[in-house]
Amino acid sequence: MTVTDLWTVMPILIIACGSLLVLLLGAIAPGRYLTMVGVTTCVGAALWTFQFPPVPAAPQLGVALTPLARIFTVLFALAGSATLLLSHDFNERRGIRGEEYPATILFAIFGMTVLSAATALLTLFLGLEALTFAFYILVAMDTASNRGAEAGLKYLLLGAISAACIAFGIALVYAATGTLEIGPAMEGAARSVGSRPLAFAGWALILVGAAFKVSLVPAHLWTPDVYQGGPPPVVAFLSTGSKGAAILFLIDLLRPAGLIPALHTPLWGLALLSMVVGNLAALRQQSLKRLLAYSSIAQMGYVALALLTGSREGYVAAAFYVMLYTAMNLAAFGAIASLSSKDDLESIEEYRGLGYARPFTAGVLALALFALAGIPPTAGFMGKFFIFAAAIRGGEPLLALLGIITAAVSVYFYLRVVVNLYLRPATAEITANRPTPAEIVPLAAASLVILVLGIYPAPLLALIEAALS
Asked: For the chain, what percent of residues have pLDDT higher than 70?
C-alpha cells in the first residue's frame, strides 16, 4: 500500500479509527463524552473530504474517492453526526448506555463510505453488508423493548435473504463477464444479457436484493415493523443513510451501461407498486411511525422512477432526492425522538395539541411532513419536480402521471398529522419531552436544509451534475 492509497481512503480510515477509539474509551473510561467523540469523527471525515481534492484510485483496495463518492461521504458523515446528537439524550431516557451504540453508528457510516467509493463489485457488496449488519444490531439495541427485538429479528432474517441474492447475482455477473470491476462488469453484462442467461439472472438477483434494501414493493414487508419497533434515532438513520447507500449502489451499477432493456419492465412494476401501495397503505395508519414507514416505501418508488429512465438526468434527480430525503426524514424521526420520553408517542392522536405545548419540535415535524408531501417552498417539492421532469423527458410520461396522482393522495395523510398538531386540542396531560440542546442543533440544521434547498437548489444540483458527468 502506497501513501497515495492511504490518502485515498483517509476519510474511511478516520471513521474506522473513530469507531475503534470509541470502543476503547468506553472500556477504559466510560462516560457521556463518547457521543462527542463520535460526532467529532464524523465532522472530521466530512471536513477532510471537503478540504482535499480527489486523488487517483487505490486499485489494490478497490476504492476511489470520486466526486460522487466525496458528496455521499459528506452526506453519510453529517447524517451520522446528527443521529448521534439525537440519540444522546434519548438513550439516557431509555437507559441505553455504553460504547456499543456510538461505535456501531460509526461502523455503519464506515460501510456507507466504503460503498460510495467502491470500484469493484466485491468492495461494493462488502460495504453494503457492513452497514446492513450494523443496523441489525442498532434496531434491537433497546434490550428492554420486545417490539425492538422482534423488529431486529425480522430485519435480520429478510436481510440475510437479500444478501444471498446480491452475492449470488454478483457471482453470476462475474461468471458471465470475467471481471469484478464495476464498469467493465456492468458493460459486459449489458452486452451479454441477450446471449448469456447467466448475465440476465445475475442482474435479476441483484435487483431483487436491492429492492429489499430500498423497500420497494413487494420486498417491503419488513419496513413497517422495523420502523415501529426500532428506536426513533436509529430509524432516522436507517431510513436515510441506509436508503441513500442502497440507491447509490443501484446508481453505481446502472451508470456504466444504462438500464438493460430486459430489466425495464420489472423496475417499472417495482416503481409503480411502491408508489401506489406505499401511499394507499399510509392512508389507513394510526401509528405515526408506521405511516412514515409506508411513506418511505412510496418515496423510494419515486426514486426508482428516476432510475428507470437510465439517463444522466434521471440519476441526478435520484441522487438529489436522496439528499433531500435525508434531511426530511432526519427532521421527522428526530422530532419523534425528541418528543419521546420513556415511551414513544405511537398514535397520531397522541400528537394532538403539541403544536402549542412543544412549538419548536412540533414545528420541525410539521415542516418535515410538508416537505414529504411535496408542498412548496420545501425541498420535497423541488425533489419531486425534478424526478417527474426527468421521467417525462426520459420516456415515462404514464408512470410520471401516476406518480403525480399518488403524490397528491399522500397530502391527505401528511396533513392529518399537522391537523392534530395545531387544530385539535389535547385530550390528556402533555407528557411529551422538551427538546434538549443536543437535539435542537440537528433538528434546526435539517429544517434549514429543507427550506434553503426548497428555495435555492441550484448549487447542489450543479454539484451532483458535475460529479455524474
From this structure: 93
Check: CB of residue 421 under 8 Å from CB of residue 362.
Answer: yes
Cα dihedral 284, 238, 442, 407 sign:
negative
Contact call for residues 15 and 45 (beta carbons, < 8 A): yes
Distance CA 50, CA 458 (A): 19
Interaxial angle between packed helices 100-117 and 121-139, expressed in degrees from 0 to 180 and rounded to the nearest 10: 160
Q: Give CA separation, 138 vs 152, 198, 276, in Å.
A: 8, 36, 30
Q: Are 446 and 330 in contact (CB under 8 A)?
A: yes
State the cell numbers at 221.
414487508
Radius of gyration of the chain (CA): 21
Is 454 in contact with 377 (CB distance < 8 Å)? Answer: yes
Range in 50-64, 65-79, 85-99, 229-243 with the lowest mean pLDDT: 50-64
Contacts of 113 (CB under 8 A, 6+ apart): 11, 12, 15, 45, 69, 72, 73, 76, 77, 127
C-beta of residue 409 within 8 angstroms of C-beta of residue 283: yes
Residue in 239, 373, 249 with CA at minimum distance from that of residue 307: 249
pTM for the complete prediction? 0.91
Alpha carbons 341 and 436: distance in angstroms, whole number: 12
Helix (H, G, I), strand (E, B) or coil at 264: helix
Amino acid at 348: I
